[in-house]
Amino acid sequence: MKTPEPGRDRQNLAGFRQFTPQESADFVGARDLINAVIAVYSSLVHKARNEEEKRALREEQRLHVDARRDLTVFDGDDVQRIRAEYPSLLRKLRARDGG
Question: Which of 6, 38, 45, 90 shows a CA-CA span of 20 to 30 A to 62?
Fold first, then answer.
């Protein structure tokens, strides 16, 4: 995938792949799910009983922070995997969090 060079005229993007409205919506949905998972981890960290538990939760959370950082609208397979897998992860985490 080609990306514009810094300072380059961004109006001339004819040679770059465009994403579809569906790709955009799916990407936003995937990011929303990741953000929700990260938020529940933050709550779990806050409620952790000791530093070891906090450390373990932060490590788990970091995996999702990294996934969010690395995800792009063009990562269709990852977007679909997240949309398929994260709802159950979110339910499990929320149950663990008491909600």
Answer: 6
Angle ∠(76,82,85) on CA atoms, nearest 5:
135
- Cα(37)–Cα(90) distance, integer angstroms: 6
Assigned token pair, 86: 């994260």
**Domain definitions of the chain by residue range:** 21-96
Residue 96: Cβ within 10 Å count: 14
pLDDT 10s digits, 40-77: 999 999 999 999 999 999 999 999 999 999 999 999 99
- Cα 60 to Cα 62: distance, rounded to the nearest angstrom: 5
> Distance between CA atoms of 65 and 36, rounded to whole angstroms?
11
